[in-house]
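A note from the maintainers: we've had questions about how concatenated examples are separated. There is no special marker in the raw files; a new sequence line simply starts the next protein. For clarity in this README we add a label.
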Amino acid sequence: MSDKSKIKWTDATWNPVRGCTKVSPGCQHCYAETFAERWRGIPGHPFEFGFDLRIVLEKLGDPLRWGTPRMIFVNSMSDLFHKDVPDEYIIKVARVMTAANWHTYQVLTKRADRLAALLKGTLRFAAKQAHIWWGVSVENKQHGLPRIDLLRSAPLKCDFYPSNHYWRTSARLT
């Protein structure tokens, strides 16, 4: 979305997917939904369709065009691992992150089951990339601890660091 960000723990945001649906209590006060819905119905605005889930193909190559290394929050306005985002598109996003390896990517999800399954399978090539940080949202013990366990089950050596309400990993293989 932006090659600059006001989020203090990242330099830029990249949203090759926009929109989402609620899956847990951590979604109750979603900043992304509140922001996106403000723009619903404004022709030509990136959030003309509010928070409805959609693939944004024209944003797919953005990191390749950003020459200066950045810390990039992937899908700050959605969840890449939403059930309606095709596996093939997630793989394309991961291939861009792998190719534009001068950046560091922060990928956070509440859908840790899908993340772990893909990292064990078709995304294994991306699991090996140290510049891609895979993380899960941890809003409480009930929802967060199972997500952490799922992330730990992926083929990564995970070092966890608390950051706001998230845990992130450095992607070093075991």
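[label: protein 2]
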Amino acid sequence: MKKNILHALSEKSFLYLWLGEIFTQISIHLFNFFCIIIVFKETHSSTAVAVVVLAFTIPAILFGSFAGAYVDKWDKKKVLLITNLARALLFIILAFYIHNIYVLYTFGFIIAILTQFFIPAETPMVPLVVQKKNLLSANALFGMGVYGSILIAYALSGSLIIFLKPVNTLFFLAFMLIVGAAFIYFIKPRPSQRKDFLEIKSPSILKELKNTVSFMFKTKQISSSLLFLSLSQILILILATIAPGYASQVLHVGVEEVPLFFVTPAALGMIVGAVMLVNVFHNFKKEKVINVGLFLAGTAMLFLPYGSRVASRGFVQTINSYLPHLFQIDILHIMVVLAFILGFANALIFVPANTIIQERTKDEFRGKVYGFLNSFIAMLSILPIILVGGLSDLIGVGAVFTGIGATLLFFGILRLFNK
């Protein structure tokens, strides 16, 4: 039977989970961008904005792993419902104190803590609502939902605040979370072996975390999948950090044009990559697909700083002489193609890695694995983001892109020789 990315949507519970994910993810990403915009408008301080980012990041480091351990003991569907409704209530309360920066910091921190419980309950639900044969399709759709929601939130954040004003924006975000909770309510997970697990005397949370970490690092496929999922997420954060510098130093365009010329083609690349992965590459070994993604991402990163040199080549100028002015190849066209390739490559890493983890873990471990992943990403991302920001100012964005591209290619080559 020919594979189709939409097969997983034929299972109603997954459809409800996916729709719940989309409404929830868009709302939370919009809230993150909303906080950054509001804090900057109130203070005109980059330091104040940095505090907002820390308020979103620190809870993942402090609570991510512990949240995953507790979620594995609870009903994941109830966790999704309660965290969505609780965050919606906090949005509504915050609407009455929107101009108090300290209240916004506090609520942002609490909402981020609740999100740490949502994350290890969300993705581990996928194997409970789809058949094993549809796992790849389901993870492809989930990946599209994650990155699509970031794109939508990024594109809408500024205009939404202008159109609705800050107070009504928070009410709208609360409404979206409630809609997400309504879809989650209709999920009917398939029976798991959770009952047998709970009949055994549970060890302490710290013991469980220790056992989970030991299990992850002893299982090569899981540890490598976690590493590359982390790499995939951190790469996005790094790109977000240096995108303004790339826009001004390399592209010579305004920062406000980055979503159009970089974020949009990257998101489209992610969607195309996910579709092709399920429809065309489903018979390929997942580890090989991840390696292809690494090589593509590394190559695209290496070429990103040199778009102007490619555009000035004689063969490009010759092609341009036969094209109407509107379609002539320039640095922006080259950058759009490279951003698309980066998104495509990210799909080849994100989807198979998630599928491997879900196939190789049981329900009683899965929340802890994703909770650890969330903490791991948060811890690993802080130093690279600080470093690339400083290095971009010191040696230029182009040199940083070259370094990241070379590192990705190194990882790909290492995996080839480490079979």
